[in-house]
Amino acid sequence: MPAQSIWTLLSWGPDGWSDDIAYGVVVTVLLALATLPIGLTIGFFIALGKQSEEPSLRLAANIYTTVFRGLPELVTLFLFFFGVPILLQHLIRYFRPEATIDVNSFIAGMIVLSLIFSSYASEVFLSAFRAIPKGQYEGGYAIGLSYGQTMRLVILPQLLRIAFPGLENCWLSLLKDTSLVSVVGLAETLRNAGVAARVTKHSFLFYGVAALVFLALAVVSSFATSAILRSLGKREAQR
Amino acid sequence: MSATAILVERPPPRARGWPRRRIVGYALVCLWIAFGLGIVSYLVFAWNAAFFAKYAPAYLQGLGVTLSLVAISMVVGAVMSVPVAYGRMSRNRILSGLAYCYVYFFRGTPLLVQTFLVYYGLGSFRPELQTIGLWDFFKDAFNCGVFAFALNTAAYQAEILRGAIESVPKGQWEGAASLGLHKLQTLRKIILPQALVVALRPYGNELILMVKASAIVAIITVYDLMGNAKLAFANSFDVQAYIWVALVYLVMVELLRHAIEWIERRITIHLKR
Q1: Residue A1 placed within a domain
Q2: Which parts of the chain span the membrane according to its record (chain A) (predicted)?
Q3: Shortest CA gap B21–chain A (Å)
Q4: Complex ipTM above 0.90?
């Protein structure tokens, strides 16, 4: 086999690896985007629980963040990926003894990343809740809005604006954490780059490409978030 | 006088009975208790003396590897962070640009990719590394882990250091200068004592993040705590391998967190009023 130049290795098509890595990038982005809404929703409710007057709710929410912020991401992932199938198998054996369970690595990654993302996002939401003065709630009740309406129409819009910079950090670490799911076999950027590295023996080249891909994703998302922030500011100014 | 005493704002009365949020709260706490009991009963039920006797020493040894990895890379990273922070704060365009790129690269890419880049990637330069005699260092997975972790944490620590130094008001520099202290003296005697109080919390968070992140060296075949858990699981297919390791990490992180909070309370005692 003739020595392949770097440019053939990086080309698009059967000889090159760009198409495989691009496919991996799509999976990475999809995983992060699929995790985001779930994580944001759970994180919001956890923060709501943490600032509740009810001690039992606070306790339950604090246990959640302590556990999922205290465990290494990799350990959570492995526990979930290997532990849950066994648990489900025990449960399902009562109904259909011959059934087997196989956890999809995308779904497992999505659930684990949502757990981790939500525990970090809940801290951001909590400090945003504390930044909103009590008068906002009282004003909402005074004009006859219910608790749910006050939350949705008065508090949430302000909350999102205050929490935005913190959530941006959470998003960036979520993007980076997606690379961990490659360990349980999801064909995302790092895994595909690793396959290319093993086949071609150009490890530095392909892991470098993977690093640049993650860097590019970070740059793109910082552009996107600054655009969102600018439009939020514009809407603020129009009032 | 008595009228004002009566009008003093009291805390709102605690809700009586069973409002919806209390029901939800109790249900969630019960769920956690059930979950905890489930794990404990699983560990009791699956108690395997042979498993414990075989792997407990390995776990202890792995704990030592994890702790030494984190300690070495934190210290090396702290040393390396000083020039990077200096570069970030310097007025020289080239110097600050270089430091910015360094920080951006290491904070913008996953630590796993950086570790792979060092462990597998540097293998591409084996002949060159052999000629300068560094191959023996990079042959070992533990050294590669320390190298990657130190580079990574140096970027984060440089930002912490910079933020802390910049949080000290400029008047402190000017005051010190007017007393005739030169720059290094000012930094050592005036700025750093104030900056380190600010920096303690982020440094503690960075330490906790490093302890958690150190689990990924298990992927490059280092037998740290997580590496031993992987090995135990591969040999026994017993999930308790991962449950034990999760408990150890959780205890470690909680201990660190409380220790840092305790230190912070101690050193900010003069700021409380």
Answers
A1: no
A2: 21-48, 74-95, 107-129, 204-229
A3: 7
A4: no
Residue B31: give the domain boundaries. 17-47
Residue A94 DSSP code? T
Q: Round to whole Å and give the CA distance between A181 and A77.
A: 8
- Residue B180 has phi, psi (to 5 degrees) of 90, 15
Supply the range of the domain harboring residue A65. Answer: 6-238
Which residue type is seen at A63? Answer: I
Q: B25, A52: Cβ pair inside 8 Å? A: yes
Q: Is B148 exposed, middle or buried (0-12, 13-18, 19+ CB in 10 A)?
A: buried
Measured from the Cβ of residue A104, the count of other Cβ atoms closer than 10 Å reads 10
With beta carbons under 8 A apart, name residues in chain B contacting A63. 32
Q: Mutate which of B116, B129, B210, B216 to disrupt the A interface (most A C-beta within 10 Å)?
A: B116
Residue among A93, A110, A117, A119 nearest A168 (CA): A117
pTM of the model: 0.88
- A49, A63, A183 ranked by CB distance to B219: nearest: A183
Nearest CA among A154, A130, A152 for reference residue A140: A154
Q: Tell me: do B22 and B107 sit in the same domain.
A: no
Does B159 share its domain with B255? Answer: yes
Is residue A171 within 8 Å of residue A36, measured between CB atoms? Answer: yes
- The partner residue sitting opposite B109, judged by closest CB among A55, A76, A214, is A214
Nearest of A159, A162, A156, A211 to residue A25 by alpha carbon? A211
The candidate with the shortest Cα–Cα distance to A75, out of B117, B62, B90, B150, is B62
| Tokens linked to A26 | 């799509």
Q: Are B232 and B55 in contact (CB under 8 A)?
A: yes
Q: What is the DSSP letter of B47?
A: -
Q: What stretch of H or E contains B99?
A: helix B93-108
